[in-house]
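FAQ: What does the model actually see?

It sees only this:
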Amino acid sequence: MAAPFYITTPIYYVNARPHLGHAYTTIVADVVNRFQSMSREQTYFLTGTDEHGDKIVRAAKKENCTPREYVDKISGLFSSLWPEMNISNNAFIRTTDPSHIAVVESILQRIYDAGDIYFAEYEGLYCFGCERFYTERELVDGRCPDHQTPPETIKESNYFFKMSRYQQWLIDYINANPDFIRPERYKNEVLAFLREPLGDLCISRPKSRLKWGITLPFDHDYVTYVWFDALLNYVSALGYPDGELYHTFWPVAQHVVAKDILKPHGIYWPIMLKAAGLPIYQHLNVHGYWNVDQSKMSKSIGNVIEPLEMKNIYGLDAFRFFLMRDMAFGLDSNFSEEALVGRINADLANDLGNLFSRVLSMAHKYFKGVVPEPALDVEKEMDLGLAQKARNAIDAYAANMDTFAFHKALAAVWEFITHMNKYVDITAPWTLAKNKAAHKQLETVIYNLLEGLRIISGLIYPVMPDTATSMQKHLGLDGDDAFYKMDRLTIWGGLTPGIKLKKSISLFPRVELKDRQQKNQSAESESAMASPIKPEITIDDFAKVDLRVATVISAQAVPRAKKLLQLEVDLGEKRTIVSGIAGSYDPESLVGKQVIVVANLKPAKLMGVLSKGMLIAASDDSGVTVATLDKPVKAGTPLS
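And it is asked to produce this:
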């Protein structure tokens, strides 16, 4: 019997709504969990939310509610999203759960008693966005590498974890376990970081500055720093230290994270485990970023992709397939609806969908919807290598799924689908059907095609579970988990003759690219207003933005775009600006208005129209309101 399997996502920080990045990480873990369940009796899949820290307090204050009310709301968005994404997690943990708090207190006390936590005064560079201190060498041009803001100098007394004591141990451990962090590029990145002296980790915040956190068990005037709280969820969720789940699953733990949290998971976490006397997790699996329009997703530039919107427009399984097929795990990838639609139409509608519909239609036409029995004396003659191609596909698929190479695993399945389509063309069942003497050959050909579809349905199950179930039901199978087991898939001839098939359906109709309301630059200001206040900037940063007064000369709707208006404005020169305000303004009502625009924004094409600037607007429940002046000024006047 195969060993148990345990996989986790990061617990997502609840200072923002879930987006494409969260969905991808969680779908990856779901795909892996479903794949492993095909060959193991016991799997466990954990996700959840991280709910303490400075940013939560700030976000709650902006929303005029308590931190508890705020985290309940945002955590609820995550927990309700995952069923919509067909996520098969066994548990959802919150760091505000009493059981988690008890584990954090217990492990902190253990490490403190062992002498690995000490109290000291510290002065350092602190980024409030990251909620951590930075060293000078970690900064880029004096700024936080993630938030592009200069950190503030803070001097205060805190508790520190003696992380430096374990630096050489971690180097030795990684070298002795070369696939501990994968892909290899991220192992090398961690080792490169460890070539420099590893400082001790500040693990507390004084309650005089922050009360929203887990109180240190050995000093009630301090709360726990976010990483020493958050990372312990992976064991607290299993009932550490005495829970049966902990003893069963922790020895085989695998984490899935994005590359921005490599350092905490690849350095802090294994050292914390070592200091606490806990076994080290098995693998850290690190993926890259999904970029949109060649840029990292950001609310500030308005390119955040909402998973539910993609699912509702294009279908959940198609969305899941695209994410697994188009990103090479570990590398960055670019998300676009054009690419998504291309995958749907080519891989799903043309290749898989047409094959499925074609084969079932022939089975109904030639055998009244009953699985025929292949003739033993013609099986070899009519096989044409199909069974071996299936075996090759299964082997390549399983090997690549085990190493998180999802794009290669799916490519192996689609290579078999291509061979299936060629098999139809070569054997020409429609010709065999015209010749009574070829009836045995026809039976064998149709059986082989149906058997190939059965195998395909099992292989796509981890990525497209609903499609797999639909295929199996139409093949006369009941679609329960037994049909998804790898030992069943590896046997050619698993489909029982005589089974009644359901009528053919279109698994994936061809689709057209839908207009998206998000594709307009005014959404940038709308999104920003609905978000927590961004990190502070300097006057030099602000001076880079050229805000000017413009007079609207004309306005018209943009064809095929419900929310976009095309404005011709005068700001000392004529400009075209595309803005998403059609839902709140008639074009003619804008003519003559003086508005405020960002004049030095890089031009961008929206729905085929080149927009040279961005209109400043505010958005709330009542709609969009364009920023205007209370008295006329000369067009082109800069704001100061």
